[in-house]
Amino acid sequence: MLKIxxxxxxxxxxSLAAFSAxxxxxxxxxMDKDNPGQEYWCQGxxxxxxxxxxxxxxxxxxxxxxxxxxxxxxxxxSFGLIDLVFNTGLNIPYxxxxxxxxxxxxxxxxxxxxxxxxxxxxxxxxxxxxKVQTGF
Length: 136
What we know:
Structural class: alpha+beta
Shape: globular
Mean pLDDT: 82
Number of strands: 8
Number of helices: 1
Strand order of the largest sheet: 1-5-4-3-2
Helix content: 10-25%
Low-confidence stretches: 1-23
Radius of gyration: 16 Å
Largest sheet: 5 strands, mixed
């Protein structure tokens, strides 16, 4: 019985996370934090089109993690952080992808500070651990 529960619980958590990310919507207009006064490259109806898709939603539902669609020259994704409270978007640069399309990202909580981070990985290697700040 314990073996069944330990295999079912992780699958349930993953399906709930996928549902949460898919169910979230972006504001119709987002400001690009890197370029004040400009609109962010992914917003509103861009989700789940050829522009971008939702990768994750933070546990407090204040932030969304988006990803672009892979290109023909490099299959690795670009990631963006959306502050759903302040309606701003920010790109998260990372280094270390090898254009194989195996780079993934998601929200994690720090074990020491319980702060929210975006963790970008390729396989088991962490490429970037970006600390999320409110009102970035």
